[in-house]
Design brief:
The structure is a homodimer of 327-residue chains.
Chain A (H helix, E strand, L loop, with lengths): L7 H8 L5 E2 L17 H4 L6 H11 L4 E4 L2 H7 L8 E6 L3 H7 L5 E6 L3 H4 L5 E5 L11 H13 L3 E5 L19 E6 L12 E4 L2 H11 L6 H12 L1 H24 L5 E3 L2 E4 L4 H10 L2 E2 L1 E3 L5 E5 L4 H18 L1
Parallel strand pairs in A: 1-11, 3-4, 3-5, 5-6, 6-7
Antiparallel strand pairs in A: 2-8, 7-8, 9-10, 10-13, 12-13
Helix pairs in contact in A: 3-9, 4-5
Chain lengths: 327, 327
């Protein structure tokens, strides 16, 4: 299985401490306050709630959506829904996409973001994470729709993973999904509800039907549906959070810049190609801060947002020590 | 997608009433009282909790188990873990097994329970639900272990789905899983927690590793892990419930017998090959009782347990009306 952030058990085992400031994910540290769960939500087989789908369609502005057990479920399932194809996955990026497309007989190429345009004519499926995790690279809405049209014309797909798209609404292509365009959205990141295991897929009905068939019944737990329904409908919380996260993201970028680090990313995380990535990871771990070390294509460090002022101070202190060490 | 019990939305749409006595599943109507959920269980990516696996191993008496998002997740995944094989699925039974084995290039045969012994020599994989849903048919522990040994000797599998096995512990083969034996357990039925989406698979480590890889990370939500941990550790509740469910199951069988219906099943449901199955289903629906109608191989009716004394009375009244109609 691939390595991911949020693996605090591993951190605790390796470093013998449990008081981590966990910055290893890009999940909003201020999670949506889950309402009390109706007792029988744990009890009943979780029928799909039409109200949840309606709330998601309103929030994402998408005409048709399928709830799935986290974006991860869709990432794993989509490669099973096509005969062997020529697949381009934008790179470096979230590693689960390439991992699963490679496992189902497809011919996979990983292509840098700035070479995607040239690759369209040579593939049947293209997968783009927008904004990208971890680099923050983006592709314009117009470009994506153009690629989708080109691919669709020959029966291809453009898969756009907008897991981190909630703070840059105008960039989303979920608002209308022509044939061949498949958009993945995550409830976990922006709402800080990664424990729910809930995401949505926007696409044409035939594809959503095939995906639902493959994923089978009762994929999203009853309580997860209840919590998400409240979160997706709470537009006041969403607006406040969008502003707050943009401010926090800029604060993180500025803090890093003040320590000589030029980073990019999204409102929820910053990333940079740290030359001494292992040493930085080790330094932070010894300060009780768990960051995400990337050692493969996207070699570098990703930092999520601290959950509170004490966390910001702790991060600043650790960065200051790191800068001193490097001088 | 196949039809299942618990589909109250469909019942409500078809009959225009919402006050259903839902007897359409085999889920314990008295669910384990879910403890309050720690707020950040919704927030964090749900790392697998070693304590949950330990609690499951203790409860099921199995040396090694993998948590999965409901037995359903394992049912869907197992057919992907073998090259095309000759597969026998015991029939009639829970339809999802045959449905998924048929979808992955395997050569599927459905074989009646009393002909399974003779079929062992002619298959690579056999799937048995024990006790069976909906008929209640059982296969002895000794017989299952013998079949597993025969299949394993030529690289085959015996898959035993013990989703309804919690009230007949001595029949379980989860207690030691030699090569080739794969046992599925469900937290949803006995504990009445179908909304959790949690089950366990017992098997040899190599198979569990392959299954975990296929299912991917974070399959079980954080809150589901917390609720299940409490339920699996609560031996007092489990003992009380085992006695209570055995009594209730016998009461259901006796009630049906008093109305001329000879049924079989488990502590959690009764089933019979009703000659006028559609008419019975319609009669009960008009009384506000939602039962499970089987129109395929297991043609007949399945009834779960009423949740309270009022439910028992309502069922008895409806059965009396049915008997009168038939005279």
């Amino acid at each position: 299985m691939l390595e991911h952030g949020g693996n605090l058990r591993q951190a605790t085992l390796r470093y013998g401490r449990a008081d981590w400031l966990d910055l290893s994910t890009g999940i909003n540290p201020e999670w949506y306050p889950a309402p009390a769960i109706a007792g029988n939500a744990w009890h009943r087989l979780p029928e799909p709630d039409p109200a949840l789908v309606q709330a998601a369609q309103a929030y994402y502005g998408a005409p048709l959506m399928l709830p799935v057990a986290g974006t991860q479920a869709a990432i794993q399932a989509l490669p099973c829904l096509r005969l062997p194809s020529r697949v381009v996955v934008a790179a470096p990026s979230y590693a689960e996409h390439a991992h699963h497309w490679a496992q189902h007989g497809h011919k996979l190429r990983q292509v840098p973001y700035d070479a995607l345009d040239a690759a369209i004519s040579e593939c049947d499926v293209m997968v783009v994470v927008n904004p990208n995790n971890p680099t923050g690279a983006t592709v314009s809405r117009e470009k994506l729709l153009d690629w989708a049209a080109q691919l669709s014309a020959r029966g291809g797909w453009l898969v756009v993973d907008e897991a981190f798209g909630d703070t840059a609404l105008q960039a989303s292509v979920a608002g209308g999904t022509p044939d061949g365009l498949i958009v993945l959205r995550s409830v976990g990141k922006f709402f800080g509800l990664a424990g729910l295991r809930l995401g949505f897929v926007a696409a044409q009905p035939a594809l959503l039907d095939a995906l639902a068939d493959l994923l089978g019944p009762w994929t999203v737990s009853g309580p997860a549906q209840q919590v998400a329904l409240a979160a997706l409908r709470d537009t006041a919380w969403q607006e406040r959070m969008r502003t707050q996260l943009r401010t926090s993201g800029q604060r993180l970028q500025s803090l890093l810049a003040a320590h000589g680090i030029r980073s990019s990313g999204s409102a929820l995380f910053q990333w940079w190609p740290e030359a001494h990535a292992e040493a930085f990871h080790e330094h932070m771990a010894r300060q009780g801060i768990w960051v995400r070390l990337f050692t493969n294509a996207a070699r570098g460090i990703r930092l999520g947002l601290p959950p509170d002022e004490a966390g910001w101070q702790r991060l600043e202190h650790a960065l200051t020590l790191w800068t001193k060490d490097k001088q």
